[in-house]
């Protein structure tokens, strides 16, 4: 295999007043894979996501995306390169309809919006994309409903559709199943599997059923450092991981 990885971090480090939340992390995400980041609370997963998306600037180290050094770029510079993120915190406008959410995402300066708006001939395609994206996450029949009318699991699905509006090369999902009941969890697993076809996905989740069902590769973080990496079967059998994380979770 000679293709360069889609994403690499090299000795990536973030310090908050001397405290290393992320410490010398070397992460390699291969193209077309689903990669899970796991680890106990405070391990540095959210900080790492913030470093990848430009919400935080690294103290040292590098982030290389699609062969390009993107270290220190701002979120609005990184997003158009093809990294989109679905947030853990529900960040929807309650009164806006689902279609409006998608149209806003499509037209946003961080997305493809400007190009689409500029070209009148492509406007129709742009308009078609909102319903298409809603359809992909199973919300086509709710296009004109306000976001406030959605159940929790549906809101999370809408957030996924918003992230997909960028048609990202890399989709980052921050705890896609957090707070969900078992039915929604299984529906989300199926949805992420579908969305991951032809795309690269990195996700954080505490639910090992989700990690085992989705991840081609798992990186375990502890205290800001990479503790272990491998397939789900490999990391779950790793003594250090069991001690640090899985053991505690399975007690
Ligand atoms: N802005 C900040 N200032 C100071 N410390 C921070 C800041 N952000 C995160 N930290 C610290 O960095 C460490 C890693 O936090 P982070 O949120 O990345 O962990 P996490 O693995 O995402 O945890 P969780 O699973 O609970 O979301 C924690 O000890 C946290 O308190």
From TrEMBL:
Which keywords belong to this entry? ATP-binding, Nucleotide-binding, Transport
Domain (ABC transporter): residue spans on this chain: 7-248
User: What Pfam families does this protein map onto?
Assistant: ABC_tran, BCA_ABC_TP_C
UniProt-listed InterPro entries: AAA+_ATPase, ABC_AA/LPS_Transport, ABC_transporter-like_ATP-bd, ABC_transporter-like_CS, BCA_ABC_TP_C, P-loop_NTPase
Q: Does the keyword Coiled coil apply?
A: no
Q: What's one GO MF term for it?
A: ATP binding
Database matches in PROSITE patterns: ABC_TRANSPORTER_1, ABC_TRANSPORTER_2
Q: Which CDD domains match?
A: ABC_Mj1267_LivG_branched (cd03219)
Protein name per UniProt: ABC transporter ATP-binding protein
